[in-house]
């Protein structure tokens, strides 16, 4: 996972996470931690693409067995956060 990424409002961004040693029965989990808050679960995936239910049309996950990317289509100031990926 890149240590940091920047964009401007309404300019889409991909947050990528590399996981070359993922097992076939493992999933990729993404979390978002807003400033001063606890991390919140966003989405999980395996080998697919899906919308994030809480932010339809704004955020989606694309994953394969080597990496995943969380795409923010039109980020706003409220999306400023630390984004984490994890395997499980």
TrEMBL record:
Gene Ontology process terms (BP): immune system process; response to bacterium
What domain of life? Eukaryota
Q: Which residues form the Ig-like domain?
A: 1-88
Keyword Glycoprotein in record? yes
Q: Name one GO cellular component term.
A: plasma membrane
The reply on keyword Signal is: yes
Q: Where in or outside the cell is it found?
A: Cell membrane
Q: Which UniProt keywords apply?
A: Cell membrane, Disulfide bond, Glycoprotein, Immunity, Membrane, Signal
Q: Provide the protein name.
A: TVA4 protein
């Amino acid at each position: 996972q890149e240590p940091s990424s920047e964009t401007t409002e309404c300019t889409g961004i991909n947050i990528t996470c590399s996981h070359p040693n993922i097992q076939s029965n493992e999933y990729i989990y993404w979390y978002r931690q807003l400033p001063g808050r606890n991390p919140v679960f966003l989405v999980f995936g395996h080998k697919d693409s899906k919308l994030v239910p809480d932010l339809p049309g704004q955020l989606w996950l694309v994953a394969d067995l080597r990496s995943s990317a969380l795409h923010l289509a039109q980020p706003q100031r409220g999306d400023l956060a630390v984004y984490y990926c994890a395997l499980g």
